[in-house]
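Sanity check. The docking grid for zinc ion depends on where the pocket ends up, so I'm generating a full predicted complex first rather than guessing from homology. Inputs follow.
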Amino acid sequence: MHNTEADGNEYFVCDFCRRCWAEDRQMVEGHRGALICSPCLTVAYTELVHLHMGEERKGTLCTMCLEHRDQAQWESPSYPAAHACVRCVRQAAGVLSKDPESGWKRPEAAAGIVPSEVEKVEEEDVDEEHV
Ligand SMILES: [Zn+2]
Ligand SMILES: [Zn+2]
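Predicted complex below; grid placement will be based on this.
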């Protein structure tokens, strides 16, 4: 979200932890100015992609894309109204990891964790958009 009463770094506020932009807190923007910061993205990516959590929140409104997606969603531990779907988390991870200034890298999977159905869900989704 954007804090319209503030300027500079303070203008950019993560929807998931409500902290503002900083050198080590880069932001990725979703729809309608929704923002997720790099530390939140690290947690969201680890939980959704590596640990396959968030299934129970399927169908809730994603703060980033503003859609009720039928896929796992990460819930902010600080602000439970804020959710991010797997697709948005992956997209944000793609954007941030390609930005050399962010210095952000996708969290590594813990040993022994294999890719899951989350991968398949995303592929189906992408196909739909190309039709
Ligand atoms: Zn955050
Ligand atoms: Zn989403």
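Relevant for the grid: Residues 14, 16-17, 19, 37, 39-40 surround zinc ion (ligand 1) (CB under 6 Å).
Also worth noting: The radius of gyration is 14 Å.
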